[in-house]
Design goal:
By secondary structure, the protein is an alpha/beta fold. Strand 1, helix 2 and strand 2 form a beta-alpha-beta unit. The chain starts with 39 loop residues before the first helix and ends with a strand. The protein is globular and about 60 Å long. Strands 1, 2, 3, 4, 5, 6, 7 and 8 form an eight-stranded mixed beta sheet that branches. Helices cover 38% and strands 22% of the residues.
């Protein structure tokens, strides 16, 4: 099988000393899917392979849950390449304002490359950790964090900081993936990785984005951070990868195991492509890969 996913040249993310929520261990001891040291090229791969099929539909769902409206001010924490921030800007209109932050220079570089939205709210991007946002108290009507909380070294501190910058009555929306078994494309990819590379690498792939699946734990974190009206609901969306398994397999170039895949010799890399394509074939229809994904979506309000 000829490298359909373009895995011939990989740009790996680096170890940035993040903490695994599941275990509290430092990077190097436990899986690290942090993007803090990822290159701009790796983040362009992330944008090309995952944003449209996966993160845009989920961002729209989170904005719907929060009832984001015109003229509001919104803070997007762990904005990545600006996916939710740009969708929010379109909803807020020219009289709104979006502030979007991320720890990753590579992610922010990709976000800043995009053209401003016509009639959309202006977006200000800046680099900072979630636990030290560097913006004034009570500055925002809405705050969002899409698939970022599971990567924060101290999620409790980040939530307390987000509460600080919300106005009284301000709303927060957070989404975190459910267990990997409820997200079949990633579960099948993990199985392929285990078959070809081994259990240890597969466990790292499974544990990163999917290392915080407990909705009760998510709710308790929000309550402990001082939020009111906390609700956590399991949501499902059908997502479509128009490029089929090859598009999804290519996302390994921007994953936490990119170094491991890059280190494979050509024979084993081809074996990984073949095994992944085989396992993902069950989700493929007319060349497109279609599957449900499941996430825990939390909303909360800052009281007085």
């Amino acid at each position: 099988m000829t490298d359909p996913a373009g895995l011939g040249t990989l740009t790996a993310t680096s170890d940035v000393g993040r903490t695994s929520l599941a275990t509290g261990a430092r990077s190097g001891e436990e899986p690290d899917w942090g993007f803090g040291g990822a290159s701009r090229d790796a983040m362009r791969v992330y944008e090309r392979t995952l944003v449209g099929p996966l993160f845009e539909p989920w961002a729209n769902l989170l904005l719907d849950e929060l009832g984001v409206g015109r003229g509001e001010t919104l803070l997007d924490v762990a904005t990545g390449p600006g996916t939710l921030a740009r969708l929010a800007a379109g909803r807020l209109g020219r009289h709104g304002q979006v502030t979007a932050c991320d720890l990753s220079p590579g992610m922010l570089a990709v976000a800043r490359e995009k053209d401003p939205l016509i009639d959309g709210a202006p977006i200000e991007y800046f680099e900072c950790p979630a636990a030290a946002l560097g913006v004034p108290d009570h500055a925002f009507d809405v705050a969002t964090c899409q698939q970022g909380l599971q990567f924060f070294p101290d999620p409790s501190a980040a939530l307390i900081e987000i509460r600080r910058v919300l106005k009284s009555g301000g709303r927060l929306g957070v989404s975190v993936w459910s267990a990997i078994d409820l997200c079949p494309p990633f579960a099948r990819m993990a199985d392929a990785i285990e078959e070809v590379i081994g259990e240890q690498v597969a466990d790292r792939y499974r544990s990163g984005p999917f290392g915080f699946p407990d909705p009760d734990q998510l709710g308790q974190l929000l309550i402990a951070a001082g939020f009111d009206q906390v609700q956590v609901n399991e949501r499902r969306l059908t997502v479509t990868f128009p490029g089929g398994p090859g598009q999804f397999i290519a996302s390994l170039r921007a994953s936490g195991i990119a170094n491991d895949v890059e280190a494979l010799d050509p024979r084993r890399r081809e074996a990984l492509n073949t095994e992944a394509a085989h396992l993902l074939a069950a989700l493929t229809f007319d060349g497109r890969m279609v599957s449900e994904m499941t996430s825990n979506v939390a909303t909360a309000v800052r009281g007085s």
